[in-house]
Design a protein that fits this description.
Rossmann fold, eight-stranded mixed sheet, 48% helix, alpha/beta, 11 helices, ProC C-terminal domain-like fold, 14% strand, amino-acid biosynthesis, binds (2S)-3,4-dihydro-2H-pyrrole-2-carboxylic acid, Pyrroline-5-carboxylate reductase, cytoplasm, P5CR_dimer, binds NADPH dihydro-nicotinamide-adenine-dinucleotide phosphate, 271 residues, NAD(P)-bd_dom_sf
């Protein structure tokens, strides 16, 4: 029987996941609660039911899975509207940065079955990577249902230690933004050395896309692939002298990921 999935919040990440779910066969029965009218319109355009508030759910509606995709700061205000569903028959899946399963249980029911998931926006095209942590109340059947739902959005990785979710958030949850910024920065650098705007954008994007695809499909490690680009005394060596000199890029990325990890921990404490 098709699962009933209730998606609460359909902004950037919720909508990305919804798009991934549309490829599922058999398709789940999806209902979305999203207060913003323009966002509801784009959900309706996909022939998915979109409601403005939890009050609009039918009295006899009962979901198998509730996916919480609102901002971490909204959990305390939003969860009481859905707490009635908490219990053995309904799985809560939260994609919020920082918010722990203990916090969600505190806002719903002590024995709520909860999966924490950290997705990323490439989920929209089935190329996300999703880490999952299940609390002790999640049944094997519920864990499988969550994995099936999320696999429609990309690669699913189970995690045993919830504390790792903050680091995962900093690497893969926020990570697409780092890569998009790298594309922006490469394009800007291309302009500075004289390429016209459209050529700069195309070269930057296609270089990142091609390199990522090669890294994903090659038997070589990324470091070996880098060495294969780098002719001794050539152009790449000149550039890497800047990027890798005194670990410049590694230090910068290390600091960036630490800042994101620390913010995730903070968001968890503020709930
Ligand atoms: N963006 C990303 O790449 C990722 C985000 N996440 C997590 O996903 C969650 C959502 O982030 P993101 O999509 O970026 O944020 P958005 O602000 O884009 O989406 C949240 C949506 O929830 C809506 N909302 C507000 N109140 C309610 C309510 N009571 N019921 C239902 N919906 C409501 C908001 O509407 P309105 O704007 O009108 O308030 C908004 O459209 C966060 O917890 C974040 O940590 C996780 C991984 C990646
Ligand atoms: O920026 C954020 O807080 C969310 C979590 C991971 C990606 N976006």
């Amino acid at each position: 029987m098709a699962k009933k999935v209730l998606l609460v919040g359909c902004g950037n990440m919720g909508f990305a996941m919804l798009q991934g779910w549309l490829a599922l066969q058999p398709s789940p029965e999806i209902t979305v609660v999203e207060p913003a009218a323009p966002l509801r319109q784009r959900i309706s355009d996909l022939a998915v039911s979109a409601l403005a508030s939890a009050d609009d759910l039918a009295a006899d509606y009962w979901p198998d899975i509730v996916v919480l995709a609102v901002k971490p700061q909204m959990f305390a205000g939003v969860l009481p509207d859905y707490a009635r569903f908490a219990g053995p028959s309904t799985l809560f899946v939260s994609i919020a940065a920082g918010v722990t399963t203990a916090t969600i249980a505190g806002l719903t029911r002590a024995d709520a079955a909860i999966v924490r998931c950290m997705p990323n926006t490439p989920a929209a095209i089935g190329h996300g990577v999703m880490a999952l942590y299940a609390n002790g109340q999640v049944s094997a059947e519920q864990a499988e249902a969550a994995a099936t739902l999320l696999a429609a959005c990309g690669t699913v990785v189970a995690i045993e230690d919830e504390a790792l979710m903050d680091a995962v958030t900093a690497v893969s949850g926020s990570g697409p933004a780092y890569v998009f910024h790298f594309i922006e920065a490469l394009s800007e650098a291309a302009r500075k050395v004289g390429l016209p705007d459209d050529l700069a954008d195309l070269m930057a994007l296609k270089t990142v896309e091609g390199a990522a695809r090669l890294a994903a499909t090659s038997d070589d490690a990324p470091g070996t692939l880098r060495e294969k680009v780098t002719s001794p005394g050539g152009t790449t060596a000149a550039a890497l002298g800047v990027l890798m000199g005194e670990g410049a890029l590694s230090t910068l990325l290390g600091d960036a990921v630490e800042a994101a990890r620390d913010r995730s921990v903070e968001l968890g404490k503020s709930e």
